[in-house]
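#structure-requests
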Amino acid sequence: MSRINIKPLALLLAPLAVLTACAAGPAEGANEAPSDSGAVGARTVQQIKDAGSIKIGVFSDKAPFGYVDSSGQYAGYDVVYGNRVAQDLGVKVEYVPVEAASRVAFLETGKVDLILANFTVTAERAEKVDFANPYLKVSLGVASPESAPITDIFQLNGKNAIVVKGTTAETYLEANNPEVKLTKFEQYTEATSALLDGRGDAWVTDNTEALAWTQANKGFVTGITTLGPADTIAGAVQKGNTDLLNWLNEELVTLGKENFFHKDFTETLEPVYGTTVSADDLVVEGGKV
Protein backbone atom coordinates (compact mmCIF):
# COMPACT_ATOMS: atom_id res chain seq x y z
CA MET A 1 0.00 0.00 0.00
CA SER A 2 1.35 3.42 -0.81
CA ARG A 3 2.04 5.85 2.01
CA ILE A 4 -0.92 8.01 2.87
CA ASN A 5 -1.18 11.50 4.21
CA ILE A 6 -3.90 11.62 6.86
CA LYS A 7 -3.80 15.43 7.05
CA PRO A 8 -1.08 16.08 9.58
CA LEU A 9 -2.32 17.77 12.77
CA ALA A 10 -0.04 19.36 15.28
CA LEU A 11 1.27 16.81 17.74
CA LEU A 12 0.47 16.09 21.30
CA LEU A 13 2.52 14.75 24.24
CA ALA A 14 5.87 13.67 25.61
CA PRO A 15 8.15 11.17 27.39
CA LEU A 16 8.06 7.48 27.28
CA ALA A 17 8.60 7.34 31.03
CA VAL A 18 5.60 5.09 31.02
CA LEU A 19 4.20 3.57 34.17
CA THR A 20 3.69 -0.13 33.79
CA ALA A 21 0.16 -0.17 35.04
CA CYS A 22 -0.87 -3.25 36.89
CA ALA A 23 -4.15 -3.70 35.07
CA ALA A 24 -5.52 -7.19 34.70
CA GLY A 25 -7.75 -8.33 31.88
CA PRO A 26 -11.39 -7.28 31.78
CA ALA A 27 -13.73 -8.80 34.30
CA GLU A 28 -16.82 -10.62 33.08
CA GLY A 29 -19.62 -8.18 32.38
CA ALA A 30 -17.36 -5.16 32.73
CA ASN A 31 -18.19 -3.97 29.23
CA GLU A 32 -21.89 -3.68 29.97
CA ALA A 33 -23.19 -0.13 30.18
CA PRO A 34 -24.29 0.90 33.69
CA SER A 35 -27.99 0.37 34.25
CA ASP A 36 -28.32 3.60 36.22
CA SER A 37 -28.82 6.38 33.70
CA GLY A 38 -28.60 9.18 36.26
CA ALA A 39 -25.44 11.24 36.54
CA VAL A 40 -23.07 10.52 39.43
CA GLY A 41 -20.77 13.20 40.79
CA ALA A 42 -17.36 13.27 39.11
CA ARG A 43 -14.19 13.04 41.17
CA THR A 44 -11.81 15.98 41.35
CA VAL A 45 -8.07 15.61 40.90
CA GLN A 46 -7.57 15.76 44.65
CA GLN A 47 -10.22 13.11 45.27
CA ILE A 48 -8.50 10.84 42.76
CA LYS A 49 -5.17 11.41 44.49
CA ASP A 50 -6.71 10.76 47.91
CA ALA A 51 -8.22 7.51 46.61
CA GLY A 52 -4.85 6.45 45.22
CA SER A 53 -6.15 5.33 41.83
CA ILE A 54 -7.80 6.61 38.66
CA LYS A 55 -10.36 4.65 36.65
CA ILE A 56 -9.80 4.93 32.92
CA GLY A 57 -12.13 3.48 30.28
CA VAL A 58 -10.29 1.88 27.35
CA PHE A 59 -11.01 -0.63 24.61
CA SER A 60 -10.00 -4.21 25.27
CA ASP A 61 -10.31 -5.40 21.66
CA LYS A 62 -9.01 -2.59 19.46
CA ALA A 63 -5.33 -3.25 18.82
CA PRO A 64 -3.04 -1.39 18.54
CA PHE A 65 -4.86 1.36 20.45
CA GLY A 66 -6.43 -0.46 23.40
CA TYR A 67 -6.40 -4.22 23.91
CA VAL A 68 -5.55 -7.02 26.31
CA ASP A 69 -2.28 -8.70 25.38
CA SER A 70 -1.28 -12.36 25.67
CA SER A 71 -0.22 -11.78 29.28
CA GLY A 72 -3.64 -10.45 30.22
CA GLN A 73 -2.37 -6.87 30.53
CA TYR A 74 -3.79 -3.79 28.88
CA ALA A 75 -1.62 -2.44 26.08
CA GLY A 76 -1.73 -0.03 23.13
CA TYR A 77 -1.38 3.62 22.22
CA ASP A 78 -4.22 4.82 24.48
CA VAL A 79 -2.97 2.69 27.36
CA VAL A 80 0.55 4.14 27.20
CA TYR A 81 -1.09 7.56 27.57
CA GLY A 82 -3.25 6.32 30.43
CA ASN A 83 -0.19 4.94 32.22
CA ARG A 84 1.48 8.33 32.00
CA VAL A 85 -1.61 10.14 33.29
CA ALA A 86 -1.66 7.89 36.34
CA GLN A 87 2.09 8.28 36.86
CA ASP A 88 1.92 12.06 36.84
CA LEU A 89 -1.06 12.05 39.18
CA GLY A 90 0.94 9.82 41.50
CA VAL A 91 -1.72 7.10 41.59
CA LYS A 92 -2.33 3.59 40.33
CA VAL A 93 -4.47 3.02 37.24
CA GLU A 94 -7.53 0.81 37.05
CA TYR A 95 -8.52 0.11 33.45
CA VAL A 96 -12.18 -0.50 32.73
CA PRO A 97 -13.09 -2.10 29.38
CA VAL A 98 -15.70 -0.17 27.40
CA GLU A 99 -17.49 -0.56 24.11
CA ALA A 100 -17.97 2.32 21.69
CA ALA A 101 -21.66 2.74 22.52
CA SER A 102 -21.11 2.71 26.30
CA ARG A 103 -18.42 5.38 26.63
CA VAL A 104 -20.74 8.26 27.50
CA ALA A 105 -22.76 6.19 29.98
CA PHE A 106 -19.61 5.09 31.82
CA LEU A 107 -18.70 8.73 32.39
CA GLU A 108 -22.22 9.85 33.30
CA THR A 109 -22.57 7.17 35.96
CA GLY A 110 -19.11 7.69 37.43
CA LYS A 111 -17.93 4.21 36.51
CA VAL A 112 -14.78 5.82 35.11
CA ASP A 113 -13.04 9.14 35.65
CA LEU A 114 -11.63 9.36 32.15
CA ILE A 115 -12.23 7.78 28.74
CA LEU A 116 -9.18 7.07 26.56
CA ALA A 117 -10.86 4.81 24.02
CA ASN A 118 -10.16 6.28 20.59
CA PHE A 119 -12.95 8.77 21.31
CA THR A 120 -13.50 10.97 18.24
CA VAL A 121 -14.55 14.51 19.12
CA THR A 122 -17.97 15.44 17.70
CA ALA A 123 -20.40 18.27 18.49
CA GLU A 124 -23.09 15.77 19.51
CA ARG A 125 -20.80 14.00 21.96
CA ALA A 126 -19.54 17.31 23.33
CA GLU A 127 -23.06 18.01 24.55
CA LYS A 128 -22.79 15.00 26.87
CA VAL A 129 -19.11 14.89 27.89
CA ASP A 130 -16.23 17.32 28.15
CA PHE A 131 -13.35 16.62 25.79
CA ALA A 132 -9.80 17.53 26.65
CA ASN A 133 -7.53 18.79 23.90
CA PRO A 134 -6.67 16.20 21.23
CA TYR A 135 -3.80 13.72 21.08
CA LEU A 136 -4.52 12.07 17.72
CA LYS A 137 -6.11 12.89 14.38
CA VAL A 138 -8.36 10.61 12.42
CA SER A 139 -10.95 10.23 9.68
CA LEU A 140 -12.89 7.22 8.46
CA GLY A 141 -11.47 4.42 6.32
CA VAL A 142 -12.94 1.46 4.48
CA ALA A 143 -11.45 -2.04 4.65
CA SER A 144 -12.55 -4.61 2.08
CA PRO A 145 -11.40 -7.85 0.44
CA GLU A 146 -8.50 -7.44 -1.96
CA SER A 147 -10.49 -9.45 -4.48
CA ALA A 148 -13.35 -6.92 -4.41
CA PRO A 149 -11.87 -3.65 -3.15
CA ILE A 150 -14.08 -0.71 -2.26
CA THR A 151 -12.28 2.40 -3.50
CA ASP A 152 -15.27 4.74 -3.65
CA ILE A 153 -18.04 4.93 -1.07
CA PHE A 154 -20.69 4.84 -3.80
CA GLN A 155 -19.60 1.31 -4.62
CA LEU A 156 -21.35 0.34 -1.39
CA ASN A 157 -24.76 1.59 -2.48
CA GLY A 158 -27.15 -1.32 -2.04
CA LYS A 159 -24.39 -3.38 -0.49
CA ASN A 160 -23.63 -4.30 3.10
CA ALA A 161 -21.20 -2.30 5.24
CA ILE A 162 -20.11 -3.52 8.65
CA VAL A 163 -19.92 -0.93 11.45
CA VAL A 164 -19.57 -0.88 15.21
CA LYS A 165 -22.47 0.66 17.11
CA GLY A 166 -21.87 4.08 18.63
CA THR A 167 -19.03 5.00 16.26
CA THR A 168 -18.67 7.91 13.89
CA ALA A 169 -18.76 5.40 11.02
CA GLU A 170 -22.34 4.49 11.93
CA THR A 171 -23.53 8.10 12.22
CA TYR A 172 -21.66 9.27 9.12
CA LEU A 173 -23.07 6.57 6.84
CA GLU A 174 -26.61 6.96 8.16
CA ALA A 175 -26.47 10.70 7.51
CA ASN A 176 -24.56 10.79 4.22
CA ASN A 177 -24.98 7.40 2.55
CA PRO A 178 -28.42 6.01 3.46
CA GLU A 179 -28.29 3.73 0.39
CA VAL A 180 -25.64 1.67 2.15
CA LYS A 181 -27.01 -1.23 4.20
CA LEU A 182 -25.47 -1.43 7.67
CA THR A 183 -24.74 -4.52 9.73
CA LYS A 184 -23.99 -3.36 13.25
CA PHE A 185 -21.97 -5.03 16.00
CA GLU A 186 -21.18 -4.13 19.59
CA GLN A 187 -17.52 -5.11 19.52
CA TYR A 188 -14.65 -4.63 17.10
CA THR A 189 -13.79 -8.31 17.15
CA GLU A 190 -17.33 -9.12 16.01
CA ALA A 191 -16.99 -6.65 13.14
CA THR A 192 -13.68 -8.03 11.91
CA SER A 193 -14.94 -11.61 12.20
CA ALA A 194 -17.92 -10.67 10.04
CA LEU A 195 -15.64 -9.23 7.37
CA LEU A 196 -13.44 -12.30 7.45
CA ASP A 197 -16.50 -14.52 7.11
CA GLY A 198 -17.86 -12.57 4.15
CA ARG A 199 -20.92 -11.28 6.00
CA GLY A 200 -20.29 -7.81 4.61
CA ASP A 201 -18.76 -6.15 1.58
CA ALA A 202 -16.65 -3.77 3.63
CA TRP A 203 -15.91 -2.59 7.14
CA VAL A 204 -16.15 1.16 7.75
CA THR A 205 -14.24 2.35 10.81
CA ASP A 206 -11.54 4.82 11.84
CA ASN A 207 -8.86 4.90 9.16
CA THR A 208 -6.26 4.29 11.85
CA GLU A 209 -7.99 1.04 12.72
CA ALA A 210 -8.70 0.02 9.12
CA LEU A 211 -5.07 0.51 8.10
CA ALA A 212 -3.76 -1.40 11.10
CA TRP A 213 -6.15 -4.30 10.55
CA THR A 214 -5.52 -4.68 6.82
CA GLN A 215 -1.77 -4.53 7.41
CA ALA A 216 -2.14 -7.54 9.69
CA ASN A 217 -4.65 -9.49 7.56
CA LYS A 218 -3.57 -10.66 4.14
CA GLY A 219 -6.21 -10.57 1.45
CA PHE A 220 -7.72 -7.29 2.67
CA VAL A 221 -6.97 -3.68 1.78
CA THR A 222 -7.93 -0.22 2.96
CA GLY A 223 -9.30 0.95 -0.38
CA ILE A 224 -10.49 4.27 1.07
CA THR A 225 -8.01 5.81 3.50
CA THR A 226 -9.87 9.06 4.17
CA LEU A 227 -13.65 9.30 4.22
CA GLY A 228 -15.58 12.25 5.56
CA PRO A 229 -14.12 15.14 7.54
CA ALA A 230 -10.79 15.11 9.35
CA ASP A 231 -11.45 14.72 13.07
CA THR A 232 -9.49 14.49 16.28
CA ILE A 233 -9.38 12.00 19.13
CA ALA A 234 -9.25 13.17 22.73
CA GLY A 235 -9.71 12.10 26.29
CA ALA A 236 -13.14 12.76 27.79
CA VAL A 237 -14.37 13.41 31.32
CA GLN A 238 -17.82 13.75 32.83
CA LYS A 239 -19.65 16.91 31.78
CA GLY A 240 -18.75 19.73 34.15
CA ASN A 241 -15.61 18.13 35.61
CA THR A 242 -13.49 21.18 34.83
CA ASP A 243 -10.94 20.32 37.53
CA LEU A 244 -9.81 17.09 35.87
CA LEU A 245 -10.29 18.61 32.40
CA ASN A 246 -7.94 21.51 33.17
CA TRP A 247 -5.37 19.12 34.64
CA LEU A 248 -5.45 16.99 31.48
CA ASN A 249 -4.97 20.00 29.22
CA GLU A 250 -2.03 21.23 31.29
CA GLU A 251 -0.60 17.71 31.18
CA LEU A 252 -0.81 17.71 27.38
CA VAL A 253 1.27 20.89 27.22
CA THR A 254 3.91 19.34 29.45
CA LEU A 255 4.01 16.11 27.49
CA GLY A 256 4.17 17.99 24.20
CA LYS A 257 7.57 19.35 25.22
CA GLU A 258 8.79 15.76 25.46
CA ASN A 259 7.31 14.56 22.17
CA PHE A 260 5.50 11.95 24.24
CA PHE A 261 3.04 10.85 21.58
CA HIS A 262 5.72 10.47 18.91
CA LYS A 263 7.47 8.06 21.28
CA ASP A 264 4.14 6.37 21.98
CA PHE A 265 3.65 5.97 18.21
CA THR A 266 7.11 4.43 17.84
CA GLU A 267 6.40 1.94 20.61
CA THR A 268 2.85 0.90 19.76
CA LEU A 269 1.85 1.91 16.23
CA GLU A 270 4.99 1.84 14.10
CA PRO A 271 5.40 -1.95 14.49
CA VAL A 272 1.91 -2.28 12.97
CA TYR A 273 1.97 0.40 10.27
CA GLY A 274 5.58 0.06 9.22
CA THR A 275 6.32 2.74 6.63
CA THR A 276 2.69 3.02 5.50
CA VAL A 277 1.91 5.78 8.00
CA SER A 278 4.26 8.19 9.73
CA ALA A 279 3.88 9.63 13.20
CA ASP A 280 3.29 13.08 11.74
CA ASP A 281 0.30 11.71 9.81
CA LEU A 282 -1.53 10.91 13.05
CA VAL A 283 0.06 12.36 16.16
CA VAL A 284 -0.95 15.58 17.91
CA GLU A 285 1.49 17.04 20.43
CA GLY A 286 0.75 19.67 23.05
CA GLY A 287 -3.00 19.39 22.48
CA LYS A 288 -2.88 21.62 19.39
CA VAL A 289 -3.61 20.54 15.83
